[in-house]
Input
Amino acid sequence: MADAVRETGADASLIFVPPPFAADAILEAIDAGVPLVICITEGIPTLDMVRVAAVLKNSKTRLIGPNCPGIISPGKCKMGIMPGRIHKQGNIGVVSRSGTLTYEAVHQLTQLGIGQSTCIGIGGDPIIGTTHLDAIRLFNEDPETYAIVMIGEIGGDAEEQAAAYIKANVKKPVVGLIAGQTAPPGRRMGHAGAIISGGAGTAAEKYKAMAAAGIHTVQSPADIGSTLAAAIKK
Output
């Protein structure tokens, strides 16, 4: 990576390597001073990501992922595995822990003629680089983003943190969905980070926080596009 940066001026790294080697690939990119690293790899050992998180904290690198589809600014740049053809250039920011739900939201928006500024799949692992809060803050500061779609999942408190920031700082319309509403406590559903433990991280708690923040909440993925369309008309 250091050679690549020196010889080409590379400013981003897209990581697909297998789980046992992915953390080292991230660390190598950080060491080379790469500003943006996107890690698609799923199944990286959590202990490996603890090591990455510690190094990341004191670096100038932004990590998106792991276990994510990547990031796209339609009409400008794509780094990841999302189907580019469903996207449309515009002014809606999308952030999601789920790759497939990102695609679903984007497809609905495009079908309604509503374009996207940037779409970020942040990944569904317990330890990730860029969080919901980070993405919401960036969207809030972006003059080309007029409204936001936030798709979360059960487990953890990332959505509650983002909701608190939205309540205090965001004037743009926000539509929110939480996946995994019917998951029983203690049962992991899909992503490694989507587990309810000790009664915390439930869909009900997250919806309550989002509603208190003035977010337009939806119970079904099918309603994301129409709810956003209604919100931006007001």
In short: The chain has a mean pLDDT of 94.
